[in-house]
Design brief:
200 residues, alpha/beta, Ribosomal Protein L13p, Chain: A, 2 domains, four-stranded parallel sheet, two-stranded antiparallel sheet, disordered N terminus
């Protein structure tokens, strides 16, 4: 290590708050080490008095985790008429999870309630109306059944949206708790007028 490298290491150590004479003692005589260290420390102290060193970000930036007791929930209503199944499901799943909130916490249910009306009028692209199938299996050999999207639109239109949104939720108790905030109805009416839902 040459003399310039030693001087640079000592200056960096002084900036970091260390004692530079501890480094000089290893390579320089005691007298020279004391004089050089005194000069460096005095220069650094003067620089610190003129230049305001910023403290670490952790002093100001604290991680805020939401608590279920303090979560404030809103109610939203969505008209599914003509909206694409997948795109609408993503938006609703994010609202149920609270992904758009600055207080979003993965292990806390920070989401809002969502009401879907006109579920039977949700749109799908391509030939999914006849080709998209849902599989059901009872566990017995040979009892595997398939039903198309058109069958559900005729008999259980709310299942189409529920199935798509549920597949985008976490597979645990928290995900099932979030999914309970979803209300799906056929037709334009719903029984949640008292909550004063906001239209999306």
């Amino acid at each position: 290590m040459d003399r310039k490298t030693k001087f640079g290491s000592v200056a960096l150590s002084a900036l970091a708050g260390k004692k530079p004479y501890m480094i000089f003692n290893k390579a320089c005589p005691s007298g020279q080490a004391f004089i050089l260290s005194f000069l460096i420390v005095s220069i650094v102290d003067k620089a610190r008095s003129t230049i305001h060193f910023l403290p670490p970000f952790s002093k100001y930036m604290k991680t805020t985790l939401a608590k279920k007791e303090t979560v404030q929930r809103k109610w939203y209503v969505v008209d599914a008429t003509g909206q694409t199944l997948g795109r609408l499901s993503v938006k609703i799943a994010n609202i149920l999870r609270g992904r758009g909130k600055p207080t979003y916490t993965p292990h806390v249910d920070t989401g809002d309630f969502v009401i879907i009306t006109n579920a039977e009028k949700v749109a799908v692209t391509g030939k999914k109306e006849e080709k998209k199938t849902y599989m059901f299996y009872t566990g017995w050999v040979g009892n595997e059944h398939y039903r198309t999207l058109a069958d559900f639109r005729e008999k259980r239109p709310d299942f189409i949206l529920r199935h798509a949104i549920k597949g985008m939720m976490p597979r645990n108790n928290l995900g099932r708790q979030m999914f309970r905030k979803l209300k799906v109805y056929t037709g334009p009416n719903h029984p949640h007028e008292a909550q004063e839902p906001v239209a999306l």
